[in-house]
Design goal:
It is an enzyme of class 2 (transferase). Its EC number is 2.1.1.148. Pathway: Pyrimidine metabolism; dTTP biosynthesis. Homotetramer. It catalyses: dUMP + (6R)-5,10-methylene-5,6,7,8-tetrahydrofolate + NADPH + H(+) = dTMP + (6S)-5,6,7,8-tetrahydrofolate + NADP(+). The chain has 242 residues and is an alpha+beta fold. The protein has one domain: Gyrase A, domain 2 (2-Layer Sandwich). It has nine helices and eight strands. The strands form three sheets. A four-stranded antiparallel beta sheet has the order 2-3-8-4. A two-stranded parallel ribbon has the order 1-5. Helix 3 packs across helix 9. The longest helix has 27 residues. It is globular, with a radius of gyration of 22 Å. The termini are far apart.
């Protein structure tokens, strides 16, 4: 028998930093081995200004490998369609997502919030999104909720009839919430942020879907606290991954 609670409709995403081994000194340590051999972390941390200068130099001239010697693991809860975009990022990333083969999926679904722009204007590559009308917001929410309820009812009926989870899940929509662990290093995260956030100071413009941008913004906030010098250099040099 299915064991789900009542449906939940959400317009947010959640991002939690669950584990990290990432600090600016990791970048300095990795970079200086090229010219100075092995050094102690204490020696590297004695001159913060010089360290900031080196990180800026590495970022500006796109010497990328020193930014790979660190690790961050995030627990992310978002709609499935966000993860389909997420998994395009492969270099420097590891993923483990919850499985609909081994557990009953819960009825938690995405419905855009009031601030989500609903209308696309222009042609691909030169388009923008603008606010929808109250009528468009109403029909969007009502259509989504009705579709979600119908598909989840079908899912429950199949489970109750003894159909395997891996078969029954096929009726569920991409607006269903899923969760995953995502592990990356600073270099791979910077590449992700350069494509999945829209910032005025970005050298290369990006036009991400808002829902994955919400995830990216939360991840960036956590990373900026761990590696403030590296984040500042990323910002200073146009948000281009080295």
């Amino acid at each position: 028998m299915s064991d789900a609670a009542g449906p939940v409709f959400r317009s947010d995403v959640t991002v939690e930093l669950v584990r990290s081994a990432a600090q600016d000194s990791d970048v300095i340590w990795a970079a200086r081995v090229s010219t100075a051999g092995e050094q102690s972390l204490e020696a590297l941390q004695q001159d913060p200004e010089k360290s900031a200068g080196l990180i800026n130099y590495l970022m500006r001239d796109r010497h990328g490998t020193p930014f790979e010697h660190n690790s961050m693991t995030f627990f992310i809860s978002a709609p499935i369609f966000v993860f389909r975009e997420f998994h395009r990022h492969r270099s420097g990333w590891s993923y483990n997502e919850e499985s609909g083969r081994y557990r009953n999926l819960q009825p938690v679904f995405y419905v855009p919030g009031e601030d989500r722009k609903l209308v696309q204007q222009g042609r691909p590559g030169r388009y923008e999104f603008v606010d929808g009308t109250p009528e468009q917001a109403k029909v969007t929410a009502e259509a989504m909720e009705a579709s979600y309820l119908a598909s989840y009812t079908a899912y429950q009926e199949m489970l109750d009839a003894g159909v395997a989870r891996e078969v029954a899940r096929a009726v569920l929509p991409v607006g269903l919430f899923s969760s995953m662990y995502a592990t990356c290093n600073a270099r791979s995260l910077m590449h992700f942020l350069s494509l999945r956030t829209k910032k005025e100071n970005a050298t290369v413009p990006s036009f991400p879907q808002r829902e994955i941008e919400m995830v990216a913004e939360a991840m960036e906030a956590e990373w900026a606290k761990l590696m403030p010098l590296t984040h500042a250099a990323f910002e200073k040099h146009g948000r281009v991954a080295p």
